[in-house]
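Course assignment 3, question 2. Fill in each field.
Student: A.L.
Task: Predict the tertiary structure for the chain below.
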Amino acid sequence: MKMKMEGETLQEISTSPSYICPVQNFEFRLQCVRTCTSCGDKVFQEEEQNHLSLDLHPSLIAGLQFYFKPSELECTCRQCSGCQATAVRHFLTLPRVLLLHMKRFHHDGARLRKVTDAVSVPPWLSLASLVGEQGAAAGIDPLRSSYGEGEIASGAKPSANMAVDHLDSAGDRDRGLQEVHGKDHSNQSTYRLSGMVSHLGESINTGHYVSDVAREDGAGWLTLNDARVTPAETPVLRTREKTAYMLFYVLSGAEEGSHVPLAQNQEPSGAERD
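Answer field:
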């Protein structure tokens, strides 16, 4: 937030019109749709975010599915005074760089406890199934996912052979979020893992942070440990399963410094926003 405030100040005083605050690369907008279970009335609310904080699951895919899973809420309907609603989130815009924070520190009484559960991290990721109706209006199918079979070793180039799964109902939404093993420029929602920050240590008060960065030429990974930069000697995605803390996914084919607008900010007729 401090970097963003300083960046906005620099934009105002900068003589270079091309200056872009780096924080803008991470910004995106989510929309939460609350639907009354009694009468079906919908309320739309937008949220500005620069990262997603995910609970730990066996795979990153499962963590994202859980984050965007429909939830039941207790609230008063403005139309029928019903007391329950279903809330669903989806993306209105996608960031150039998707920052995912893994919740590896949990409160255990008055102390923070380090959690070392293994999380499988895919080298490619599609968010097509998490784009809402407005994204679909811009030509992005929210129920379309591209994925491949098998596993890609760390640093290996993705296969160009991909299968396309067309889902038939909103109930299959969770299956729409899949690991991508190849570039899919058609839906503008495919991301490549470009870096990760890992915490090595037993607690939040001890340990060390290291970074792993994917080489742009696809020839493996580099490990940044303080001032030391060395080629990764072991498969990074497997080595960091229990220590990955922050993940950086870069949008495939996006222009530098831009986010991806999925649709014009127009709500269905008669809808109101909180």
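Instructor remarks: The chain has a mean pLDDT of 75. The longest helix spans residues 2-13.
Grade: pending
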